[in-house]
Amino acid sequence: MTEQLQSENGSVRISNDVVSKIAGMAALETPGIAAMSGGLSEGWAKRLSGKNVQKGVTVEVGQREAAIDLRIIVLYETPIHEVCRMLQQNVREAIESMSGLHVVEVNVKVEGVAFKDDEIEDLVVRNK
Predict the structure, then answer these.
(1) Do 83 and 98 meet the contact criterion of CB atoms below 8 Å apart?
(2) CA 90 to chain centre
(3) Distance from the first to the final alpha carbon of the chain
């Protein structure tokens, strides 16, 4: 689906994929996030690093609003509630500033904990 914004100069279309990529990049730049998760249905071994930032991101875009769902893996020994609060804020700010859409909600599902960054990289390398 593509979002279309009307103005006196014409229209602007923003693809769901664009919103999804913005959300994924903002998520991976948040301290305490080890990786995005492909979801339990896709298996733990499909956890991804920054190469495919759309994995673990679902967006719903309306006329002028967007709702975001994120599936993440956090680093061990980070306060999950603080990481998630910061993640929600970062994603909201990135989407609103880059697209002009109003983000009505950013839902976060923590699907795992990584004990070391190396664990994530090992899983990604083994499953390529």
Answers:
(1) no
(2) 10
(3) 29
pLDDT per residue, tens digit, the chain (128 aa), is: 555 556 678 877 788 999 999 999 999 999 999 999 875 444 443 444 444 557 899 999 887 899 999 999 999 999 999 999 999 999 999 999 999 999 999 999 999 999 875 555 554 544 44
Q: In this structure, are strands 65-75 and 33-36 parallel, antiparallel, or unpaired?
A: antiparallel
Closest CA to 70 of 46, 103, 36, 47: 36
Q: Mark residue 11 as left, alpha or beta (left: phi above 0; alpha: psi -120 to 50; beta: remaining).
A: beta
Residue 95: half-sphere exposure toward Cβ, Cα within 13 Å: 32
Q: What is the DSSP letter of 48?
A: B
Measured between alpha carbons, how far is 57 from 70 in angstroms, rounded to an integer?
A: 5
